[in-house]
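ok so i was messing around last nite and threw this chain in just to see what happens. nothing serious, just curious
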Amino acid sequence: MSFLQIEKLDAFYGKALALSGVELSVEEGEIVAIVGPNGAGKSTLLDSILGLTTTNGDICLDGNSLIGTGSAAIVKCGVGYAPERCNLFPYMTVRENLLVGAFTSRENIDSNLELVFKLFPQLREREHQETSTQSGGERQMVSIGRALMTSPRLLLVDEPTIGLAPKICLEIAEVLRRLCKQFGTTIVITEQNTNFAMTLAERLYVLETGEIKASGTVDEMRNDARLTEAYFGT
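result:
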């Protein structure tokens, strides 16, 4: 079984079906991207892994089912989540926002803070600045940093490039690569920016209207004419 294994997953918001029969796998130490248009269900899939939706099917992490497990317990199992548009506390400082993420890994606060500041040197310089006064790129760095304060084995990052300048996107991509290669963190990102996803991930899943429509390595997806035209441009 893969490090993250999702089988026949249906997800609901109330009675509304948001995901249908989703199956995917992620190996330990791998970066996988879930791409698709707005409204495809990408955020719902990450929410489901974190136990934030009603589901049928199974989600297993390192051989253990997460179904029926509360979100706090899932975080303790090693899942970190950087949600779309950050969801930070705007009138708290960078440092205070980071410390919010440390509630399940309090014994590692100092080492995790040092890791975040090494990955994002700008945050060390601005650790006492309120996040409401920061740029979108800096807030995204805080969001990822806060997820890292949980000491995750699996890092979920929802739409990391949304609204950001290309230069900042490249910086974030480099940090995610370092986390994977140097620290062995398994990473799942969702993206509408398929070009960004293809430069970062090893494999892609295409999600559309709540269903997986295609999957494969980056090279396989590049060579699929139908998918290239529909998702990646001609």
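not much to say yet. The mean pLDDT is 92.
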